[in-house]
Structure formats: C-alpha cells, structure tokens
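Duplicate of #3305? Posting structure anyway:
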C-alpha cells in the first residue's frame, strides 16, 4: 500500500516557529543521486517522495538558561500530519551533520529535527588539542546530562507550539515521535529510551515510540550492562560497522553490539556493515572512501526509513520486511543482520 499525502505550503512551514534567531526557509528538492533506488517495491512503503524544506532555528530553554540550535527538515506540498524524528548529533558535530538522513527521512514523510548540543558540539574540537578537548566533552557529567535534557526540551517545545496552534506544529503528529543519534548522540537517545547513563541517571521519555541508534558507545566499567540497558523496551534499530572503532572514547567495533545484546525487549534489530568505520554516519564523503561512504549512507537512510515506517506509521508491510528476512536479503553481502 503506497502512502499518499495532500499539499503542505511553504508558508505554513514558515509560520511554525517563533525563535530567537531569524527564519530562512530554502526549498531543496530531494536530489541525492545515490538514493535513486529504494525498497518500496518490496515493502509497499516509501513510494512517495517529497521536496524538502530546511530551516535553522535556535530555541531557548529558559529553565536551564541554555540555547539549543536545531535544523528542521520537513516535507512540503502536504497538509497531512507527519511523525516526528528528533536526531541527536554526535560528539564534535553540529546540526549541519547527517544531512543525508534529514533530507531522506523528510522526503519519506517525516519532520526531522536535528539537535546540536552545546558543550559537546563542533566547538569542542577547535582547541589546540582537539582530541583531548573531545575526550573531556565526552566524559563530562554535565554534557551526559544536558544532551538528553536537550531532546526532552525539543519535545516540550514542539508540544507547546502545537498547543499554541502554530501552523507547522499542527503538521507534526506528536503521538508518533522517534529519536535517533550517532556516537554520543546514540547514547543520548538510548538515555531517552531508558538506558541508565554513566552517573546512574535516567531520562526515559514515554512519548518516544522507537529509536535508531548508530555507533553506540558502551559504558564499560561504569554501569553493569544488564542494568544499563535492562529497562529499554522500545523497538530499536542498532547500526554499526566492523571497523567502527571509537576515535575519542574506548569503545571498539566488536563492542558496539553490546547494547543490542543486553536489551531484552522484542523488536530489536542489529545491522553491522562490513568495512564501515566510525565516520561513515556523519554524512561526509571522504576523498579516499567516497564511493563506500555513499553506499553505506544510502543503505542506512533507506533501511532506517523502513524502520520508521514500521514503528511510527505502523506499516504492516514494513514490519514484515524487517522481520521475515527481506532486510537481510536486501543488504546481501554488505551487512550482517540480527534480530530478536
């Protein structure tokens, strides 16, 4: 069954947010040539493709006295409400990163909000010793706490705007919220899903329905793993690679599967791409590895969009495609797929 939606105007999008920074919408057609194929013929999902609007905003959390920069990717030419994905960017990254995911998810009928976390963002790697600064940012108790609080603040902000009847807020289906993240962002969203984070703190958010966690760091020696992941009950797509060794922290590629192994809930999927390293997910195409980066990014974007269809849109065809071996067949020799 193909999804069909009616038009949503760019004007409606531009009226959505009231923020402390100017709003500039740019209409960007979905144009990643590498994503010219998709799994629609197998799942019945992802048939629709929308042009994508992109806006940068900075929202202010008065309670913490903290600015939270975001970039929002949204489908245009549609008057229906869309599920919302909140993306937590990785250590040393900004809202600019992982644009391929934001554009792809929005083109498939999602509002994707990419969150930049002050204190562990791109500014943390601009000192004289960037690796040391990144390590300090990663292990900082303040950053470990602030990151999931940023995600909860974004959900609260969207909810407030929805109640204030702002135009695009009414296009967001806040009963269908997914969270995703890469690296430090993966730990952040697992925290929102119920992980006990270092320092024995938790931030479980019941409005979140599903998660996609890429390259998850593992708190070895800090929290017993059965305790750290034992309370996670949400469907989760875990993504890693056989060369996914941490550049800053201590997690090695073979350890990235531990969150999957120690999560006892059903609807857990682990995709391990052969040869994929830690920087594949960021969205950059590196000169020496560009063709492989593009391939991995295409597959990550496509498979994660099917996962969102399954657990945010409750698409029976997408759920069956994930569970019946079709995901494994689709990825073929590029990845190992496990599920429980």
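Output from current build:
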């Amino acid at each position: 069954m193909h999804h069909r939606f009616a038009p949503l105007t760019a004007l409606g999008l531009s009226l959505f947010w009231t923020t402390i920074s100017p709003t500039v919408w740019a209409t960007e057609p979905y144009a990643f040539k590498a994503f010219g194929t998709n799994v629609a013929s197998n799942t019945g999902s992802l048939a629709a493709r929308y042009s994508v609007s992109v806006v940068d905003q900075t929202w202010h959390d008065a309670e913490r006295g903290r600015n939270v920069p975001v970039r929002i990717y949204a489908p245009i030419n549609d008057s229906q409400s869309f599920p919302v994905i909140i993306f937590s960017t990785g250590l040393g990254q900004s809202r600019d990163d992982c644009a391929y995911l934001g554009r792809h998810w929005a083109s498939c009928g999602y509002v994707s909000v990419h969150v930049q976390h002050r204190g562990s963002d791109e500014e943390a790697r601009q000192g004289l010793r960037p690796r040391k600064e990144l390590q300090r940012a990663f292990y900082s108790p303040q950053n470990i706490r602030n990151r999931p609080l940023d995600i909860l603040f974004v959900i609260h902000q969207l909810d407030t705007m929805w109640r204030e009847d702002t135009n695009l807020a009414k296009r967001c289906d806040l009963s269908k919220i997914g969270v995703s993240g890469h690296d430090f962002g993966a730990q952040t969203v697992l925290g929102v899903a119920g992980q006990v984070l270092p320092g024995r703190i938790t931030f479980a958010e019941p409005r979140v329905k599903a998660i996609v966690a890429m390259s998850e760091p593992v708190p070895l020696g800090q929290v017993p793993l059965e305790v750290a992941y034992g309370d996670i009950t949400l469907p989760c797509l875990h993504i890693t690679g056989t060369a996914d060794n941490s550049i800053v922290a201590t997690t090695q590629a073979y350890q990235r599967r531990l969150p999957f192994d120690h999560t006892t809930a059903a609807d857990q999927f682990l995709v391990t791409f052969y040869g994929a390293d830690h920087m594949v997910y960021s969205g950059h195409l590196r000169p020496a590895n560009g063709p492989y980066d593009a391939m991995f990014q295409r597959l990550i974007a496509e498979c994660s969009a099917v996962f969102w269809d399954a657990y945010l849109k409750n698409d029976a065809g997408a759920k069956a495609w994930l569970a019946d071996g079709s995901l494994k067949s689709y990825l073929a020799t590029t990845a190992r797929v496990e599920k429980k």
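Confirmed duplicate; merging threads. Residues 29 and 51 are 5 Å apart (CA to CA). The first strand starts at residue 26 and ends at 28.
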